[in-house]
Design a protein that fits this description.
With 83 residues, this protein is mainly alpha-helical. The protein has one helix and no strands. The relative contact order is 0.04. The model has no long low-confidence stretch (mean pLDDT 85).
Length: 83
């Protein structure tokens, strides 16, 4: 008994094929990346020198005071004459 029509089966097969292709491509890319890194050796870590302790210099913050907005002064509207 078919639960899907012919078009539904075709769509399902296309989705499965697409997912399989995507997975295969990613596996091949990761395999090539891993193969390239096999011959490389990581550089030996040099022992880190302890940093010299400096006296902490004070930090000054420059803060600008907020300025009050001047209240706008409106004048009497001008009359416009059209000719």
């Amino acid at each position: 008994m078919n639960l899907l029509s012919v078009q539904g089966q075709g769509f399902l097969y296309v989705i499965i094929l697409l997912l399989a292709c995507v997975i295969v491509v990613h596996i091949v890319k990761l395999a090539l990346l891993g193969y390239r890194t096999l011959g490389k050796k990581l550089p030996a870590e040099k022992p880190k020198k302890p940093a010299k302790k400096r006296e902490q210099e004070p930090v000054y913050f420059i803060v600008e005071r907020k300025k009050k907005r001047s209240k706008p002064e409106y004048t009497e509207p001008k009359r416009i004459q059209f000719k």
